[in-house]
Every structure is written in structure tokens, then in C-alpha cells.
Specification:
Layout lengths: L19 H4 L44 E3 L6 H8 L5 E4 L2 E4 L8 E2 L5 E4 L3 E4 L8 E2 L6 E3 L2 E3 L8 E3 L8 E3 L2 E3 L4 E4 L5 E3 L2 E3 L4 E5 L6 E7 L2 E3 L6 H4 L7 E5 L2 E7 L2 E3 L6 E4 L3 E6 L2 E3 L6 E4 L2 E6 L2 E3 L3 H9 L9 E4 L14 E4 L2 E3 L5 E5 L36 H4 L7 E4 L2 E3 L2 H4 L7 E6 L14 H9 L3 E3 L2 E3 L3 E5 L4 E2 L1 H5 L10 E3 L5
Parallel strand pairs: 1-2, 2-5, 3-6, 4-7, 5-8, 6-9, 8-11, 9-12, 10-13, 11-14, 12-15, 13-16, 14-17, 15-18, 16-19, 17-20, 18-21, 19-22, 20-23, 21-24, 22-25, 23-26, 24-27, 25-28, 26-29, 27-30, 28-31, 29-32, 30-33, 31-34, 32-35, 33-36, 34-37, 36-39
Antiparallel strand pairs: 37-38
């Protein structure tokens, strides 16, 4: 795709000399735990959790009236019949293993309005030979009750809806054990009650050439065990892993999903996303953050249950002596912006339960990351407020309005009415695993930057309307403000000059 995906924006801080002794942590292997078949039961979310992979509903046992029947005994039958049939045809795949021709680029090129229905036990298998299953630019294609597996899409590409066509509906479908992304996305795509499991890079890569995804719905799915190819290890710093990656999506409903046991982040919205509603999900046991919302705008994150996330990545950095508060919910250069149309003009995080994760919520800004800066690894992109990126240059960037509009700002984040529960005996850590944070690095780069020094750190902490209040804390929580050197107990966090967590309650005993 020609995009260099970025990883976390890290502060430039030296590693401590004493590692394990400083963290008080128990080491665990880097490999993810074996995915569970059932969610844990404490702190259950308000809606039922999808157990789609273990108990998928069965498709029609007989061909619907007017449907074209596809025979698994005939290699390439599905692609051939799709080619010879008119747009809007319904195809019924008999039980059994369906294969495409044994050619890397053999694929089903769908036509507008086609419907693909799998009988009980119908599988489309790429045999580790075919790159793609369903492709083409035709709109409004539906895939239901089908298992799609063992395709070998290249990195950053996908197996189903490879060409990012609009209006596709994916329901009651298993997309599993493929390389690359199991699924790509187009505008107004709906992915419901499906299993996105064990894919090499992402369960779904919600990226479309031209950044034109609108109205995406991801509802009631199980998204588990993705990034089996461990791309962060193969390509350090790529930021190209996890359960789902969202890129420049305007308007998304992400609700009622069970996102668990992914290597890397569970859900990652990266680069100029806007108007997300993330609710009623169970996010658990992901190696990295449960949720990352980065260089993006305007979101509601509510009524999610978030537990046992970030144990692998958080522990890894702590064991190296890295003092940065790697979080389970990580908001990086992202905030509310009233000038960008959405259903909210802030990032509101409320009525969530966060239980036994490695750290809580971190609000972060990289002072050196802005339009035209070499530190902006979203190469070629600027904020949604500046259409002409070239305007963000010396000397104009140092004056209004560009001084404010040329950088993604973590602002107007409202964190309230959440429960933060931490039992360090469960997480197996005595330090660096129970932190909330609002901070930035010391600006140094490039030499023409108008954001040098502490100005960004002071702004994110005191001037950009980021606020915690009316939360419940159970366990030994501490707080980090301005930069990693300012570590606060609840009393200092609530007092001047921070004045955070008004109306919140604190109990240092283990949460539950």
C-alpha cells in the first residue's frame, strides 16, 4: 500500500541499568497465550459477548430458490461460475472444501450485488497457493456462512474484499489462518457475527486507497489470535499488527465484539480517523494495548470491559528499564475537535471497566510530531485541519492558526465514571503496572520546530481540557503528569496544579 505504519511514539529516555530489580516484575515468554474459547466472567459487559469461532451458526442446507450451486469437486468452480453469471447472482456453496485454480492470482472477482452463501461445512481453501479469495471493485457483495482460510496475501493486503470495494456485507463467516489481513474494508462495509481468527497480520485492515471509508460497522465479531507472523519482530517499529487496524475511517460503529489474545494491539485507530463509537466490547488478553486511538479525532468509548491486556508488551518495556507508562488504552496525538463534523466534539471515555491490565489510560503527545516534521511517520499526511501540507513550514507554522492546526493534539479528552481495578498478584508485578498518565516529551526536533522545550508537555497537562473525574480506583494506582519524571500519588494528582479526578474514590487494596 505504500504506507509506513508507525508504532508508538516513544519519548527519548535512557534505559535504567537495573532492570528486573527496578520493576519488581515476573518475566513471561513473548509468545501469546493460547486463545481461550470462552470469555472470563468477572465484570461482564452489558451485552452478550460473541463466541463466534467456537459456535458459528450454520448456513442453508439446501440451495435457495434461483441460486447457482457450486460444486467442491470441481476445482475453480466458484470463480468460473461467478465469471459466467450476471451481477446480482446468489451462489450456494455445497458442503466440502472448495478450491481455486492452483495459481497465485486465481481469485473470485465478484460482481455487483452478488451473494455467496455457504452450506454447513462449506470452506473456501486457498491451500497456501492463492493470494486472494474475493476481489474486484463491485459494490454491495454479501458473503455469509462461509469459511475462508489458508490464503497467502502479501503484507498490508487482504484476502476477502482485497480491492476495498464499498458496501460489502460479511456475516456469519470465518476468515482464518491466512497471511496478511483476513479482510480489507470499503465504505459502508458491515462485518457482523464473524470470526476473524489466526491471520498472519490483521483480522481486518480497514484501509482504502484514497482514504474514503465512511460508515463502517464492526459488530458482534470474535477477533482472536491475529498477527501470527509477528510483524513487529520481523519489521521492528512497523506499527503494522493487531486485531483490527483503522486508517482514515470517518464514522465507525465498533460494538459487541470479543477482541482477545491478539499479538499486539486489539483495536488500533491510526491516522485521521474520526467519529468512532466503540462500545459494549470485551477486550481481553491482548499482548499489547486493548485500544489505541492515534492521530485521530472525536470518539465515544463506553461500556467496554477491558481486562488482562498489555501483559506482554508492558512487561517487556518495563523489564528493559523503560519508564514510559505504556497503557492499555493509549490516546496518542488524538482528541476532540469541534471544527471536524462528528457526533461528539471530544473523546469521551466513560462507564468502562478496566480490570487487571498493565497500566490504565495514557494521554500522550510527541512534541516533535507534526505536519512536515521528519518525526511524523505517517509520511505525507497532515491534520484534517490543514489541506495544504506545505503551509506547515517555517516561518508560518510559528503563528496562528497554523501553530495550533499543524499538529495533532491530545485535547478535550473526558475520562469519567469508569472502574479501574488492579490486583498486582494477578498481573504479577509490583511496580510500573498501575499508572494513569498525561504527558509529552521535551521538544527538540527538527531545528525549525516551534514546539521545542516543555511547551507541549505543559499544554497537554494543563491547557488542552483533558480531564479525569468521578472514577473508582481499586488497587495501588499512581499517576504521571507532564513527563515521566513527575510521579504522583492520588492526593497530589487531585491537588493543584493538576486538579484531576474530582469526585473519584481511591482504595489502595486490590481491586475486584
Amino acid at each position: 500500500m505504500g504506507i509506513k505504519w508507525r508504532h508508538w511514539a516513544l519519548p527519548a529516555a535512557p534505559l535504567a541499568l537495573t532492570l528486573l530489580a527496578a520493576t519488581g516484575c515476573t518475566n513471561t515468554p513473548d509468545a501469546p497465550a493460547k486463545p481461550t474459547d470462552a470469555p472470563s466472567t468477572s465484570g461482564a459487559p452489558s451485552t452478550p459477548v460473541a463466541r463466534v469461532c467456537a459456535k458459528p451458526p450454520a448456513g442453508p442446507a439446501k440451495a435457495p430458490a434461483g441460486a447457482v450451486t457450486v460444486d467442491p469437486a470441481v476445482v475453480g468452480d466458484l470463480a468460473a461460475k461467478t465469471k459466467s453469471s450476471p451481477a446480482g447472482t446468489t451462489f450456494w456453496l455445497r458442503p466440502g472444501k472448495h478450491r481455486l485454480k492452483p495459481d497465485r492470482y486465481a481469485q473470485v472477482i465478484a460482481k455487483k450485488g452478488n451473494r455467496y452463501l455457504g452450506a454447513p461445512g462449506a470452506v473456501l481453501d486457498g491451500g497456501k497457493k492463492n493470494n486472494y479469495a474475493f476481489s474486484g471493485t463491485a459494490r454491495d457483495v454479501t458473503i455469509r456462512y462461509l469459511t475462508v482460510q489458508h490464503f497467502v496475501a502479501p503484507p498490508d493486503e487482504g484476502v476477502v474484499n482485497h480491492d476495498m470495494a464499498d458496501g460489502w456485507v460479511i456475516e456469519h463467516t470465518k476468515i482464518q489462518y491466512n497471511s496478511g489481513a483476513g479482510l480489507m474494508a470499503g465504505a459502508h462495509q458491515r462485518v457482523r457475527a464473524s470470526c476473524l481468527r489466526g491471520n498472519g497480520q490483521y483480522g481486518m485492515n480497514a484501509y482504502k486507497t484514497g482514504d474514503s471509508i465512511r460508515g463502517l460497522v464492526v459488530e458482534g465479531n470474535e477477533i482472536v489470535g491475529n498477527n501470527t507472523d509477528d510483524w513487529e519482530r520481523r519489521k521492528p517499529g512497523c506499527g503494522c499488527t493487531g486485531g483490527i487496524k483503522f486508517w482514515a475511517v470517518n464514522g465507525a460503529e465498533v460494538r459487541g465484539n470479543w477482541v482477545h489474545d491478539n499479538r499486539g494491539a486489539g483495536l488500533w485507530a491510526d491516522n485521521n480517523n474520526n467519529d468512532f463509537r466503540i462500545e459494549d466490547n470485551l477486550l481481553e488478553a491482548n499482548d499489547g494495548a486493548a485500544l489505541m486511538y492515534e492521530t485521530s479525532y472525536n470518539a465515544v468509548i463506553r461500556k467496554n470491559t477491558i481486562r488482562r491486556n498489555n501483559w506482554v508488551e508492558g512487561r517487556k518495556y518495563a523489564d528493559r528499564g523503560d519508564d514510559f507508562p505504556y497503557a492499555t488504552v493509549y490516546v496518542s496525538e488524538a482528541g476532540g475537535e469541534p471544527r471536524i463534523r462528528a457526533r461528539t466534539d471530544k473523546i469521551e471515555i466513560y462507564r468502562n471497566v478496566l480490570e487487571d491490565n498493565w497500566n490504565g489510560i495514557t494521554l500522550w503527545e510527541n512534541a516533535d510530531r507534526f505536519c512536515n516534521s521528519p518525526a511524523n511517520t505517517s509520511t505525507g499526511y497532515c491534520t484534517l485541519l490543514v489541506k495544504d501540507t506545505d503551509r506547515c513550514a517555517k516561518p508560518a507554522i510559528a503563528t496562528a492558526p497554523l501553530y495550533a492546526d499543524c499538529r495533532w493534539k491530545t485535547q478535550r479528552v473526558d475520562i469519567h465514571d469508569n472502574r479501574f481495578l488492579l490486583d498486582t498478584s494477578v498481573v504479577r508485578c509490583t511496580a510500573k503496572c498501575g499508572r494513569m498518565a498525561v504527558l509529552a516529551n521535551y521538544g527538540t526536533y527538527p531545528d525549525w520546530s516551534p514546539y521545542k522545550g516543555k511547551r507541549v508537555a505543559e499544554a497537554i497537562t494543563h491547557k488542552q481540557h483533558n480531564r479525569w473525574h468521578d472514577n473508582v480506583y481499586r488497587g495501588p494506582w499512581t499517576f504521571v503528569a507532564v513527563d515521566t519524571d513527575h510521579k504522583l500519588d492520588p492526593g497530589l494528582w487531585q491537588g493543584p496544579p493538576y486538579r484531576q479526578d474530582a469526585g473519584s474514590t481511591f482504595d489502595p487494596r486490590a481491586g475486584g
